[in-house]
């Protein structure tokens, strides 16, 4: 916003409510930063004359000559919150926004998608993914479950869960049905194995892990059934 | 080398915000103490803002500037200084971002904001120098009272006075902020006693206070290892050195003493000199250095004999005397005190009215001073010399006494001594005539504004209240000795006075600038009592009503100290906002590490104002930051 030219009349308007909230949040964040920096100074850290390149906060240096930026390393970043790659919340809000955007044209398209109303409904009826559900599914993909076969059925299940907004409706081909059946069988095998292990297990930790394995197998089965419908 | 950094208001705000966060927890009557520990294991508790801020490791030049400015500004109120600074900067930033100055063309909003902020700071300072003391005199002082110099304790006053104003009460509230409840009564009583002894007859109170403040290091003895209640006053002067020769055996009075500034044994030979031993050109056999030193000793014996005829038995020397002198003095039954520090000697000379001996061959009776006694005194783990002066009406108008400060540890004695010195400085500022306290730069701005107000006076219709601004600069509007109750009343009353002033200005359509400026200042001032009562907003409201009715009894504060503090804050704001760029440089240093911390701050100021890159008093290589001021 260049201020060249005296003829332009810049009238200051009071900020809107959204802007007020942003300003308020920013001010609180600055206060928190100041308080943290003050605590560190009292602990013996040195306040340098340099600023952090990322966020512009003044750098501190501890006794071991290591530089430390309070806002980058301690507080949650101001802008990272909005980055969907780093934050599941941000990813969720992005998903919800896309859903809302696609929901308005969707009702007009339902009569044309009669051949697969169930699939579109299946896509739509996957509930607005709750954060913990989403994170659980994402975590399920990441945690190294002991049987390596389990992640593969859960992976297509999670992709199915995370991509409900894909408007294109894939027709149920026989190849897909075969794959789904194989996946179901593998999951059932694992479920049987886990049940056997659970009956004979003596340690508490192992039992808990087996129970959670059974839960995730059941979830996978449920999603597989939903996909195949 | 790191690149140049342009300073934005955000950085300034952040720096001051951090300093504020540091001292906020120790602020107010409910404030806590900071525990300082050294690598040697020594620990100390303190609530003094000066101590906390100077102990922080700050390399950022703006932070150093803030800390430097406050430590030289006042002996007290350093935490209030930082709080006011922070709130003023925040308000200026808010005001500047609302109305950027569009009269110049700038590259960015930030530059425009910075320019507006600078402009605002200048206007604030001008307003404060021009009108603030009148506002205080009319809006604040009537709610307080005046202490007279004569009354030191409450008992000396007539009981009819409602508010029981006395110096001891003022000192008590001062020490309460430093030490808490435990010892403030005792210490304030001790300080009052000290000051009543050192009252010079027929002199202004500021003279005695200045004297005590200047000579305080020589007037007190710190003793560690005793409880604080063991502190007391001793008659006479304590010289912080032990006798170099055995002290006087017989306590015969009176004792005669002389002050020596040079060694009795003249140093005729320096390193590198060549002595030609002969006798009038004739070469004699067996002339050697032994004869030369024997001749020197004979002259020394002559000097000692001269002193003996004058009846001198104490030699106070500023330098170390040689072994020959000591031996001869012991033989002649004189005692010698060596290496007396300069300020103690000057105090001694001042109190006794004598002249120190410069030329040892000419010793006259006027070099001799008569003392009541001169004996050793054991204070704590050290033995010192205790002297008492004989009363002589034409020479001294005061009864000298020395203060012994006891505390459990060494750090604490230092704290008590500093607190006492700051208390004296605070009293000095309370009684000093106001015009003497104005610095030269502010006098210049005052002059320019007085001339402008003269001009506008002719044009507009003003009340008599305004016309008092035409009077010469030296008129002091604030009378010495004004006090007001503590606990934020000064800030509250000034806040209301400023708001009223703003309203009256806008009503008379006069100098619209003044309205916004006084509004800004008023809002900034309110932050101090808000922080004092942060834990209970109800008390804040109660206090507001009590202050108006003059019912508050939380102790006393000096009005002129508060005024000085406010001026110092505004000047600091202006300096901070004038900084344009920070220039980092690498400097390798190995200068003297014995320089005391106080002078390093003065160097900093010189560097900052003159733009030199000067050496700093540290011993490692590090990055030193210097702020460059923008010329406008």
From TrEMBL, chain A:
Pfam families per the UniProt record, alphabetical: Auto_anti-p27
InterPro entries associated with the record: SSSCA1 (IPR009563), UPF0148_domain (IPR051888)
Ranges where the record places region Disordered: 91-175
Annotated Low complexity bias: 155-165
Biased composition (Pro residues): 144-154
Record's compositionally biased regions (Polar residues): 100-126
Annotated protein name in UniProt: Zinc ribbon domain containing 2
Organism for this UniProt entry: Amphilophus citrinellus (Midas cichlid)
UniProtKB/TrEMBL annotation, chain B:
Source organism of this protein record: Amphilophus citrinellus (Midas cichlid)
A family per Pfam: Cpn60_TCP1
Transmembrane domains' residue ranges: none
A single GO molecular function term of this UniProt record: ATP binding
Gene Ontology biological process: chaperone-mediated protein complex assembly
Protein name (Swiss-Prot/TrEMBL): Bardet-Biedl syndrome 10
């Amino acid at each position: 916003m260049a201020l060249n030219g005296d003829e332009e009349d810049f009238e200051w308007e009071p900020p809107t409510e959204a802007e007020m909230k942003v300003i308020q949040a920013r001010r609180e964040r600055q206060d928190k930063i100041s308080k943290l920096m003050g605590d560190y100074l009292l602990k013996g850290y040195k306040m340098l004359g340099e600023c952090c390149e990322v966020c512009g906060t003044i750098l501190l240096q501890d006794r071991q000559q290591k530089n430390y930026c309070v806002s980058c390393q301690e507080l949650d970043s101001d802008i990272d919150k909005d980055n969907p790659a780093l934050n599941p919340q941000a990813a969720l809000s992005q998903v919800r926004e896309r859903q809302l955007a696609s929901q308005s044209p969707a009702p007009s398209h339902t009569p044309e998608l009669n051949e697969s109303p169930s699939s579109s409904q299946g896509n739509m009826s996957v509930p607005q993914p709750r954060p913990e559900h989403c994170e659980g599914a994402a975590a399920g993909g990441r945690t190294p479950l002991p049987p390596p076969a389990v992640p593969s059925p859960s992976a297509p299940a999670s992709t199915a869960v995370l991509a409900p907004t894909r408007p294109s409706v894939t027709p149920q081909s026989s190849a897909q049905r075969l794959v789904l059946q194989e996946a179901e069988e593998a999951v059932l095998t694992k479920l049987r194995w886990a049940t056997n292990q659970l009956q004979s297990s003596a340690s508490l930790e192992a039992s808990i892990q087996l129970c959670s394995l059974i839960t995730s197998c059941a979830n996978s089965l449920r999603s597989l059934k939903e996909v195949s419908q | 080398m790191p690149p140049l950094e342009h300073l934005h208001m955000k950085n300034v705000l952040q720096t001051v915000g951090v300093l504020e966060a540091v001292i906020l927890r120790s602020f107010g009557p409910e404030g806590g103490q900071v525990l300082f520990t050294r690598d040697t294991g020594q620990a100390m508790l303190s609530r003094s803002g000066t101590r906390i801020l100077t102990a922080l490791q700050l390399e950022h030049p703006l932070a150093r500037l803030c800390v430097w400015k406050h430590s030289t500004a006042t002996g007290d109120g350093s935490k209030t200084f930082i709080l006011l600074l922070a709130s003023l900067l925040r308000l200026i930033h808010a005001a500047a971002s609302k109305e950027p100055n569009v009269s110049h063309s700038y590259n960015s909003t930030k530059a425009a904001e910075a320019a507006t902020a600078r402009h605002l700071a200048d206007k604030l300072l001008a307003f404060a120098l021009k009108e603030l003391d009148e506002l205080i005199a009319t809006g604040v002082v009537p709610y307080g009272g005046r202490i007279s110099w004569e009354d030191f304790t409450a008992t000396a006053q007539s009981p009819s006075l409602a508010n029981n104003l006395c110096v001891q009460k003022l000192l008590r509230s001062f020490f309460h902020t430093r030490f808490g409840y435990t010892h403030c009564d005792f210490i304030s009583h001790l300080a009052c006693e000290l000051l009543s002894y050192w009252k010079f007859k027929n002199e202004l109170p500021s003279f005695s206070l200045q004297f005590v403040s200047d000579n305080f290091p020589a007037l007190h003895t710190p003793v560690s290892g005793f409880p604080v209640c063991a502190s007391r006053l001793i008659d006479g002067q304590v010289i912080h050195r032990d006798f170099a020769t055995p002290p006087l055996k017989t306590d015969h009075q009176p004792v005669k003493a002389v002050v020596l500034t040079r060694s009795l044994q003249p140093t005729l030979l320096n390193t590198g000199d060549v002595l030609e031993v002969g006798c009038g050109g004739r070469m004699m056999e067996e002339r050697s250095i032994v004869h030369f030193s024997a001749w020197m000793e004979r002259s020394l014996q002559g000097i000692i004999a001269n002193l003996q005829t004058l009846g001198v038995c104490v030699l106070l020397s500023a330098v170390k005397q040689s072994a020959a002198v000591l031996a001869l003095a012991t033989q002649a039954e004189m005692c010698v005190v060596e290496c007396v520090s300069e300020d103690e000697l000057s105090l001694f000379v001042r109190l006794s009215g004598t002249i120190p001996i410069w030329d040892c061959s000419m010793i006259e009776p006027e070099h001799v001073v008569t003392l009541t006694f001169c004996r050793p005194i054991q204070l704590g783990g050290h033995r010192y010399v205790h002297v008492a002066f004989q009363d002589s009406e034409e020479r001294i108008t005061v009864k000298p006494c020395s203060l012994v400060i006891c505390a459990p540890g060494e750090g604490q004695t230092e704290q008590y001594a500093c607190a006492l010195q700051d208390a004296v400085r605070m009293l000095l500022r309370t009684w000093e005539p106001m015009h003497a306290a104005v610095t030269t730069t502010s006098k210049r701005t005052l002059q320019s504004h007085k001339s402008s107000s003269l001009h506008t006076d002719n044009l507009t219709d003003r009340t008599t209240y305004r016309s008092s601004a035409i009077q010469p600069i030296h008129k002091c509007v604030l009378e010495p000795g004004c006090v007001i109750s503590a606990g934020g009343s000064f800030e509250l009353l000034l806040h209301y006075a400023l708001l009223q002033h703003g309203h009256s200005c806008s009503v008379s359509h006069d100098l619209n600038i003044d309205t916004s400026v006084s509004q800004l200042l008023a809002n900034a001032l309110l932050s101090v009592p808000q922080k004092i009562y942060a834990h209970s907003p109800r008390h804040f409201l109660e206090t507001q009503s009590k202050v108006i009715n003059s019912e508050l009894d939380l102790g006393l504060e000096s009005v002129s100290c508060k005024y000085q503090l406010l001026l110092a804050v505004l000047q600091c704001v202006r300096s901070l906002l004038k900084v344009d760029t920070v220039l980092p440089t690498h400097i390798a240093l190995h200068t003297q590490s014995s320089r005391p911390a106080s002078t390093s701050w003065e160097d900093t100021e010189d560097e900052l104002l003159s733009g030199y890159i000067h050496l700093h008093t540290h011993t490692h290589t590090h990055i030193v930051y210097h702020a460059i001021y923008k010329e406008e």
